[in-house]
Amino acid sequence: MKEIKVGLLGFGTIGTGVVKVIQQNAEVISQRLGTKLTLAAIADRDITTDRGVVLEPGVLTDDADHVLTNPDIDVVIELIGGYEPARTFVLKALENGKHVVTANKALLALYGQELMLAAEKNNVSLLFEAAVGGGIPILSSIRENLCANQFSDVFGILNGTCNYILTRMTENGEDFSDVLADAQELGYAEADPTFDIEGIDTAHKLSILMTMCFGTWVDFDSIYTEGITRITALDIQYARQFGYQIKLLAIGKQEDGVVEARVHPTMIPDTYSLAEVRGVLNAVRLIGDFVGPVTQVGSGAGMDATASAVLGDVMSLSRQMLGESSFLPPALNYLTKNITTLPVRAMEDITSPYYVRVMVEDRPGVLAKIAATLGEYNISISSMIQPERELGGCVPIVLMTHDAVESDVRAALEKIDQLDICREASLFIRIENDLA
């Protein structure tokens, strides 16, 4: 029976994990495939650093073409990350008739349509389970077990760094900057954490989920993206008093041929399942018309979980090549020719309840001025907290609104910030009460 040969691009943390899975689980992989899965070549710019694994002589090279054009290699695993040269390498692998497995969500978010069309043109497959949720098998669930459903909503806690930071802030009352520094020391956050804490990494993953759930290409620039850097321990404290927790949430919705695509700090009721997702864990919640709500939780990143997902894709492709399965489900859940481009609702038109914090001077008439300004923009208050006076006579006025239009909230707070009673820019957080 045909031996399956794999080539690997990128020998960093995840690449090392892939090698470990292939080596340590060789017997079980062989038992499940009925043949041997062989790591034929690894290409990386650094071929001297010890990764703690033993390779056969001649496997490691600094020449990517040795992987991309080698006629013996059946599947190329791309773990370089980023946009280039990953895009060029993946296209070359596809054009050379090789199946490709990647964990590169950034690449797929920006160039997914181009790459999927290239795979189709060359009659090969591009799989990417590890790109969203790491070890959570959410993409295979969407394209296989749940594929008969029409999805209306997809929500996700998709970045372990942000979830770890917000969990620490929630449980210990710590400040954002202190927790971020600890997360970097522990290896949960990069030295440059911008993609994580500004929501960019989460938005990359949301674009993939929305294509698979709603059958629409999502222009990455159309996803509203806001990070967690302005969230304070004070906001988390008040959220808990209202019965909520704050999570960096990816939100995709579809209704009447229009989609919402947004990533931002979100207050969710502390009784909801997503509120219980703590630390570096990820979670995805889908709502299908027949299956109803489905939630999957697990390790969203890291060497072992991501390598597990990568090898799952490799084995699916191997089974097809071995003739055990004559057909692989469409990688994006829809036939490429049937994926459309639905309009994305402008953020200014989003409607939701809001949490609002305004730092003001403690003097008579302050609350009346704020309430009057909100009323001018059709924003009604559902509940409020006004703490005791702090040093310097500055106090936060914290309130929850009923449903309001985003453009009205922004306009009202801009006017409030200009009042002589305000000491600093106000903050608002959107609320989602319909995740159940």
TrEMBL record:
Where does the chain bind NADPH?
105
First-tier enzyme category under EC: oxidoreductase
Residues bound to L-homoserine: 190
The UniProt annotation places NADP(+) binding at 9-16
> Could you identify this protein by its name?
Homoserine dehydrogenase
Q: Name one GO molecular function term.
A: NADP binding
Which EC number(s) are documented for this chain? Answer: 1.1.1.3
The catalytic residues are 205 (proton donor)
InterPro entries from the UniProt entry: ACT-like_dom_sf, ACT_dom, Asp/hSer_DH_NAD-bd, HDH, HDH_cat, HDH_CS, NAD(P)-bd_dom_sf
Reactions that this protein is recorded to catalyse? L-homoserine + NADP(+) = L-aspartate 4-semialdehyde + NADPH + H(+)
